[in-house]
TrEMBL record:
<feature type="domain" description="Gfo/Idh/MocA-like oxidoreductase N-terminal">
    <location>
        <begin position="3"/>
        <end position="122"/>
    </location>
</feature>
<dbReference type="GO" id="GO:0000166">
    <property type="term" value="F:nucleotide binding"/>
</dbReference>
<comment type="function">
    <text>Involved in the oxidation of myo-inositol (MI) to 2-keto-myo-inositol (2KMI or 2-inosose).</text>
</comment>
<dbReference type="InterPro" id="IPR050424">
    <property type="entry name" value="Gfo-Idh-MocA_inositol_DH"/>
</dbReference>
<dbReference type="InterPro" id="IPR055170">
    <property type="entry name" value="GFO_IDH_MocA-like_dom"/>
</dbReference>
<dbReference type="Pfam" id="PF22725">
    <property type="entry name" value="GFO_IDH_MocA_C3"/>
</dbReference>
<keyword id="KW-0560">Oxidoreductase</keyword>
<comment type="similarity">
    <text>Belongs to the Gfo/Idh/MocA family.</text>
</comment>
<protein>
    <recommendedName>
        <fullName>Inositol 2-dehydrogenase</fullName>
        <ecNumber>1.1.1.18</ecNumber>
    </recommendedName>
</protein>
<comment type="subunit">
    <text>Homotetramer.</text>
</comment>
<feature type="domain" description="GFO/IDH/MocA-like oxidoreductase">
    <location>
        <begin position="131"/>
        <end position="246"/>
    </location>
</feature>
<dbReference type="InterPro" id="IPR023794">
    <property type="entry name" value="MI/DCI_dehydrogenase"/>
</dbReference>
<dbReference type="InterPro" id="IPR036291">
    <property type="entry name" value="NAD(P)-bd_dom_sf"/>
</dbReference>
<dbReference type="Pfam" id="PF01408">
    <property type="entry name" value="GFO_IDH_MocA"/>
</dbReference>
<keyword id="KW-0520">NAD</keyword>
<dbReference type="InterPro" id="IPR000683">
    <property type="entry name" value="Gfo/Idh/MocA-like_OxRdtase_N"/>
</dbReference>
<dbReference type="GO" id="GO:0019310">
    <property type="term" value="P:inositol catabolic process"/>
</dbReference>
Length: 334
């Protein structure tokens, strides 16, 4: 069976997903697209031989669409995820599920009322080979208990529409989810350190910043967020355990030695750095949909990450340590 996918918001991320679905991923085809930018929807639809819908409601309700992918921007996700749940269709929603926990809670409630897990959140780092190897080693217990994790998330630059809170709920959310998964526990508090700001980008951003999180068992995670670092898409992670440390290695495939020296390349963006993770993530989702199963991060993961980000955003405006507020995990997501 070919899963017929409706794509909402085929911008940068959406078109990258379309390209991999149509080139290297098996079992799926994007047959419908919609976008608030109708010109873009028509252009993408024409290029891939899909139907352009005037709005997301028409796409989600179409009998030609088996499953929905949402790649619009964060604040627009909730309404379309709820519509997909109401239509009983599996939905892959790019991160963040929603920019606030309150909105994610509404999604969880609707999904539970429907009685079936339909929502997968696009937290692709869980599918990255190097993070998976790091998790396998930590889970083996060989290094003892994990005590601290040092992360860095650097982007060359961000667009004009990137708002101050996105440093937490759009960027740091990757580490929030990956660390919940890596450590297998929830965060209980957040704090933000605000170093000297870069002069090379927008005044309204606190850039860089360091988000400091603590888990239930006391593991301390620090996450440097520097979204205008100029030089590349640089993702770092080092876990410090009782008997050793494990870090992500440099991700480049080749090294060059010549008259100018010894060097390797630095990834430019998420597609470059996490290409393999995206392919595995979307392939597993399409395969699961065709079997009538759920895979990947759940609405609970989207909600839990949003709760931590809400605390992080509050810590960015009010100084000090902010408690993470979270409901108990419903049995539906156990
Ligand atoms: N996993 C990752 O590493 C990763 C990387 C980039 C983006 N993302 C996520 O993907 C999503 C899209 O990001 P992007 O970089 O592709 O942005 P983008 O601006 O390139 O594309 C967004 C598209 O959505 C459309 N859109 C906006 N509101 C809409 C609405 N209400 N209904 C339909 N279409 C709408 C826009 O017109 C645009 O075509 C965001 O949620 C972002 O956080 C994830
Ligand atoms: O939406 C993007 C995307 O999630 C990238 O992976 C991240 O590095 C950026 O900071 C964020 O703005």
């Amino acid at each position: 069976m070919t899963v017929r996918i409706g794509m909402i918001g085929p911008g940068g991320m959406g078109q990258a997903h379309i390209d991999r679905i149509h080139s290297v991923i098996a079992g799926g085809r994007v047959v419908a697209v919609s976008d608030v930018d109708e010109v873009r929807a028509k252009e993408v639809a024409g290029r891939i031989g899909a139907t352009a819908h005037p709005d997301s409601a028409s796409l989600i309700g179409s009998d030609d669409v088996d499953a929905v992918m949402i790649c619009s921007y964060g604040p627009a996700h909730e309404v379309d995820v709820l519509a997909a749940i109401a239509a009983g269709k599996p939905v892959f929603c790019e991160k963040p599920l929603t920019p606030t926990a309150e909105a994610a809670l509404r999604i969880m409630e609707a999904e539970q009322a429907g009685g079936r897990r339909l929502v997968t959140v696009g937290f692709m780092r869980r599918f990255d080979r190097s993070y998976r190897q790091m998790k396998a080693l930590l889970d083996s217990g060989e290094l003892g208990e994990t005590l601290m994790v040092h992360c860095a998330h650097r982007n060359p630059t961000v667009p004009d529409h990137y708002t101050w809170d996105m440093a937490i709920n759009d960027t740091a959310i990757h580490e929030v989810d990956t660390m919940r998964w890596l450590l297998g526990e929830e965060f209980v508090s957040a704090r933000v350190d605000k170093p000297k700001k870069t002069s090379l980008r927008f005044e309204h951003l606190q850039d860089p910043l360091v988000l400091i999180l603590e888990t239930e068992s006391g593991v301390r995670v620090d996450d440097e967020i520097f979204v205008n670092c100029q030089f590349g898409y640089d993702i770092r992670c080092e876990a410090v355990a009782e008997k050793g440390t494990v870090s992500l290695a440099d991700q480049n495939a080749i090294e060059v030695r010549d008259g100018s020296g010894h060097r390797n390349s630095i990834a430019r963006d998420h597609n470059d750095r996490f290409w393999g993770a995206f392919v595995t993530e979307v392939q597993e989702w399409i395969s699961a949909v065709s079997r009538g199963e759920h895979t990947g991060s759940t609405s609970w993961d989207g909600y839990a990450a949003a709760c931590v980000c809400d605390a992080g955003v509050k810590a960015l405006t009010d100084d000090g340590v902010v408690k993470v507020e979270m409901i108990a995990k419903p049995a539906f997501y156990a």
